[in-house]
Every structure is written in structure tokens, then in C-alpha cells.
Amino acid sequence: MDDLVLSALDRGVLTLTFNRPDRLNAWTDQLGRRYFDLLAEAEKDPAVRAIVVTGAGKGFCAGADFQTLGELRDGSYPGEPDPRPNTFPASVGKPIVAAVNGACAGLGMVHALMCDVVFTAAEAKWTTAFARRGLIAEYGLAWVLPRLAGQQRAMDLLLSGRTFTGTEAYELGLVNRVLPGGELLAAAQDYAADLAAHSSPASMAVIKRQVWGDWELTLEQSARNATHEMLASFGRPDFAEGVASFLERRPPAFPSL
């Protein structure tokens, strides 16, 4: 089970790699449980300041494994799903960068968009796929997709289940950066390493909570919460170090989260 998601730490960046390349990293309960366990461990590990998620071989994640779908269809599915929801990555207090290297379909697309920043290979193939399998917009995708792409574009992608490239994903506003496949992982890791070196872990955790949590609030509620968080930040060592490093023209030495 440990081999289902590979992990490697460098420069404060934990790279997690879905590792079922012969199945385009199709999602199983076991893979999901290992991924979530590693995210939970990373949140507690002071050596980890940012996380990159990618896939081995030619796929990022091709959605739910068809064996699982077949078992669900005929009622023989024996699995016990992880109690943590598929939105779990959004609750992790450290930034997660997706490096979508290839096939990104259905549940795989959900997990790409549950990351905080998304890089994609230009040639990667994306699809919601659900409508073409007799399914619905699963695991919060109907909530995330309109907020990223707008309602009409989201409806197109969800109703048609059509396949589109990483380049179009960028044009639709689903991803932050589109790159040639050979440059993708290094670019995502360099970006994450820059976060690890220059951004306060405490600040990033609060900002992540604000962005994911404030979408349903009014402007006034969000501003009121921000004032509370701002006052709290004044008492943290991160604030003192951030100001001092700027005035002294040196890299910051922020404490671990």
C-alpha cells in the first residue's frame, strides 16, 4: 500500500506521486487512503512547508478505477471508504500544488482542483466524464467548477463530459500555469520551494482557510473575519520576522507551522 503514493522531500517541498501508472493512476480506496494519510502526516511535519501532487507515467489520475465502478454497478463493492471526504486536501493547512502531467478525469479532476494552485502540461487530457458514465458532478465539483470557470463554462464541461487539453484548461481559468510536459514537475517544485523559502507557514495556513472558507460569506463577514485574523497575526513571531527580514534585506527565517 505504501507504494501506491510515493513521497520525496526536498527544499521543504514534499512531492507526492500517485503510483499506478499501468492504470493511469486510477483512484482506489487504498490509493486515496494513502494519499490522505500522507497529507495528514505532512501537516504535522515541521520539515514540510509545501506539497506538490503529481502522477507517475502518462496520467495524473484517470478517475475512479473501473473495477470499482463495476462493483458499484452490480452491488458487489466491498470497500469501506475513508471517512475523510474528497475535499480533505482543502482543509490541510499547507499549500498544495497540483502538477497535472497527463490524463485528469472525473475524480482525478476533482483532486486536481482541490489543490490550491494547479500547473498542467499543455498536452494533458482533462474531462469531467461524469455525464458520459451516467453519473453526476461528484464530490463538490459542481461547487468548485463554476467559481473557477463561470457557470456557462462549467455547465459545458459537466453536461458534455468532453475532453479538453491542458492549454484549454488554462484558458478556462482552471489552472494557474500551462507548460510543456517535460518542464512541468520541476516548475511546480520550484514554485513550491519558493513558497517554502519566502512565505510564512502560519500566514499561508490562515490565507488558505480564508480563501476556501469565505466563498459563502458576505463581504462584510469576510472583512470582519480578516480583521480578527490580522490582529492575531500581529502577535505571531512570523510578523516580527517578516518585517525584520524586509528591513534587513535578507531571506526570512519563519518558524515552522
Summarize the structure.
The protein has helices at 29-44, 66-74, 88-91, 107-113, 141-149, 151-160, 166-171, 181-198, 201-213, 219-234, 237-247, and strands at residues 5-10, 13-18, 50-55, 59-61, 96-100, 103-105, 117-121, 125-127, 164-165, 177-179.
Structural write-up:
- The strands form two sheets. Strands 1-2-3-5-7-10 form a six-stranded mixed beta sheet, sandwiched between helices. Strands 4-6-8-9 form a four-stranded mixed beta sheet.
- Helix 5 (141-149) packs across helix 6 (151-160).
- Helix 1 (29-44) links the parallel strand 2 and strand 3 (50-55).
- It is α/β, with parallel strands linked by helices and 257 residues long.
- It is globular and about 55 Å long.
- It is built from eleven helices and ten strands.
- The two termini are 28 Å apart.
Give the SSE layout.
Layout: E1 5-10, E2 13-18, H1 29-44, E3 50-55, E4 59-61, H2 66-74, H3 88-91, E5 96-100, E6 103-105, H4 107-113, E7 117-121, E8 125-127, H5 141-149, H6 151-160, E9 164-165, H7 166-171, E10 177-179, H8 181-198, H9 201-213, H10 219-234, H11 237-247
Parallel strand pairs: 2-3, 3-5, 4-6, 5-7, 6-8, 7-10
Antiparallel strand pairs: 1-2, 8-9
Helix pairs in contact: 5-6
Give the rounded overall mean pLDDT. 94
SSE order: EEHEEHHEEHEEHHEHEHHHH
Order of strands in the sheet with most strands:
1-2-3-5-7-10
* N- and C-termini, Cα separation: 28 Å
- Summarize the main sheet: 6 strands, mixed
Contiguous helical run count: 11
Q: Work out the number of β strands.
A: 10
Strand content: 15-25%
Query: Quick one: overall form?
Result: globular
- The helix-and-strand class reads alpha/beta
In percent, how helical is the residue content?
Answer: 40-55%
Which stretches of 5+ consecutive residues score pLDDT under 50? none
The Rg value, from CA coordinates, equals 19 Å
